[in-house]
Q: What sequence folds into this?
């Protein structure tokens, strides 16, 4: 986690756009999104749009505890979708 926070922080100070990948699953080792939030000085919050996307992908069923972890995103992110995928791209301006 600390390595990702450091690298994202350094890159976001040097460049206008920084792209990361991973960290979206509910397992203990999915830390990229938390690291990006930390590097940008943002808190994590439950994103209701992400909750709805997960529910839609699950056939309308309420989200599970593990899926709720996937809806915890850095405050203020925008969810962008592409026609060919149901999973969003998270955009956080630095």
A:
């Amino acid at each position: 986690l600390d390595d990702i926070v450091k690298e994202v922080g350094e890159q976001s100070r040097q460049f206008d756009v920084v792209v990361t990948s991973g960290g979206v699953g509910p397992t203990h080792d999915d830390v990229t999104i938390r690291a990006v939030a930390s590097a940008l000085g943002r808190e994590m919050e439950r994103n209701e749009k992400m909750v709805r996307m997960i529910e839609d992908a699950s056939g309308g069923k309420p989200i599970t505890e593990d899926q709720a972890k996937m809806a915890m995103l850095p405050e203020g992110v925008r969810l962008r979708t592409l026609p060919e995928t149901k999973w969003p791209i998270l955009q956080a301006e630095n």
About this structure: The CA atoms of residues 78 and 91 lie 5 Å apart. The first helix runs from residue 2 to 14.
